[in-house]
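Customer escalation, tier 2.

The customer says the design service returned an amino acid string that "doesn't look like it belongs to this structure." They asked us to rerun it and document both sides in this ticket. The original structure tokens are below, unchanged.
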């Protein structure tokens, strides 16, 4: 057996340095052993890509992307070999085949080296820049696009951009679903003229969109602010493309009339009827497109084109008479306040803003009624508590004082209420029963049919 030779005193420091040395992660030296053992020919750009990958693997991974042929497989192999040589056995490599340029673009932009998902705003911006770049446009035009883009998106919350983009697009062109919007834009925006045309259109529509989504800070008339605020309360956005088109083409009076009409349609179709919105959205888009093309130039023409989504009086009245709206949801609470304020205005002529905190919704059959309240069964309580006929308005303090008291104890407070709607409850009802709730709600349905009505369509 051969006894191994120990290093001489002169060689020991060298071996110690050799064992302990560390090369910089982005240096060619760090890949030296891998390159020596490699059995394939390497090109400089492949070595550079492998160095980049080794430097960034401590992040959330890297993407090696490019055209077919430059050697991405070799680059990935170099990286895996280097990790293996460093005794790192957990390396995951996956290959993605993009079917077209758009998919490759989306993969590259979404799965970037830091693992951060880009927003729809970034994706569209980068795509528009790529169109100009492919067309060989000058740095001046790229700079112009950059400045105008930043000015536009700077006025719009990033989470609202996809909604604004779709509303803008559908106000001028064929209907596009949100899921298909980027693909649709990519198929239409293919040159310089289309890029700047899209930008000009968005700039033109932005003020209207901001006024619809934040009416309280707009310079619109009080009536238009109110109606835009109602749509916001309803959380109904389907009319936005229509309203963008009308704002560009109609005079102020016809635009205001159309805005109010969308509130009426939304009350009948969305809030009370609770019908599916697919047909409604497509109808709004069709009318918007016809306005954009100049085929519909007046309010009356637009209203006629929307007849299919106007719920007729008989259907609306029947739906309102049975409507249940759970006020535990903040949106529903505001909607009920809006409805009750409108009924109060028709009865007394007094206009109360439904956004004020000075009054609350009073549930005549209380929300926390004890078992047996007023002779109601538990089943009746569950079914009738959030019927519109069981709700009225009261000043905040009086509402708290009423609490869970029985109807006989509440009735004097109702008689002294500042709301005619609430006084009428006390005058018309000596007791509060399931039958009286139904009778009251039928009367409210008749009122509602007269309030939210478009004469041309009824």
């Amino acid at each position: 057996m051969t006894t191994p030779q120990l290093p001489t005193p002169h060689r020991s420091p060298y071996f110690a340095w050799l064992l302990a040395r560390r090369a910089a992660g982005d240096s060619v030296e760090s890949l030296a052993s891998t390159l020596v053992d490699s059995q394939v020919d390497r090109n400089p750009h492949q070595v550079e890509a492998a160095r980049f990958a080794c430097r960034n693997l401590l992040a959330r991974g890297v993407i090696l992307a490019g055209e077919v042929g430059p050697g991405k497989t070799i680059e990935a192999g170099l990286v895996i070999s280097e990790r293996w040589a460093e005794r790192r056995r957990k390396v995951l490599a996956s290959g993605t085949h993009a079917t077209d340029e758009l998919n490759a673009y989306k993969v590259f932009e979404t799965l970037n080296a830091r693992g951060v998902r880009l927003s729809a705003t970034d994706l569209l911006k980068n795509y528009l820049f790529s169109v100009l770049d492919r067309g060989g446009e000058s740095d001046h035009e790229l700079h112009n696009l950059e400045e105008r883009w930043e000015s536009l998106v700077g006025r719009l919350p990033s989470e609202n951009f996809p909604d604004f983009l779709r509303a803008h697009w559908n106000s001028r062109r064929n209907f596009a679903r949100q899921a298909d919007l980027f693909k649709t834009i990519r198929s239409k925006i293919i040159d310089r003229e289309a890029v700047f045309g899209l930008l000009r259109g968005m700039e033109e529509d932005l003020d209207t969109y901001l006024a619809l989504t934040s009416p309280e800070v707009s310079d619109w008339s009080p009536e238009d602010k109110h109606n835009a605020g109602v749509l916001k309360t309803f959380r109904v956005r389907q009319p936005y493309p229509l309203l963008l088109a009308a704002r560009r083409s109609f005079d102020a009076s016809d635009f205001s009339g159309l805005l109010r009409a969308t509130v009426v349609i939304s009350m009948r179709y969305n809030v009370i009827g609770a019908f599916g919105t697919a047909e409604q959205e497509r109808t709004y888009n069709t009318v918007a497109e016809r306005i954009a093309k100049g085929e519909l130039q007046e309010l009356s023409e637009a209203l006629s084109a929307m007849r299919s989504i106007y719920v007729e009086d008989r259907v609306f009245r029947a739906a309102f008479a049975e409507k249940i709206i759970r006020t535990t949801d903040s949106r529903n609470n505001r909607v009920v306040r809006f409805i009750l304020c409108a009924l109060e205005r028709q009865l007394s002529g007094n206009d109360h803003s439904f956004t004020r905190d000075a009054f609350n919704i009073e549930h005549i059959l209380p929300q926390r009624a004890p078992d047996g309240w007023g002779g109601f069964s538990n089943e009746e309580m569950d079914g009738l508590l959030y019927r519109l006929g069981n709700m009225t308005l009261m000043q905040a303090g009086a509402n708290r004082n009423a609490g869970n008291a029985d109807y006989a104890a509440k009735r004097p407070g109702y008689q002294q209420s500042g709301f005619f709607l609430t006084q009428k409850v006390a005058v018309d009802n000596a007791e509060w029963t399931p039958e009286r709730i139904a009778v009251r709600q039928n009367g409210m349905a008749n009122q509602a049919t007269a309030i939210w009505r478009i004469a041309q369509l009824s």
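Tier 2 assessment: The sequence is consistent with the input. Confidence is low (pLDDT under 50) at residues 17-26. The chain is about 60% helix and 0% strand. Sent an explanation to the customer and offered a walkthrough call.
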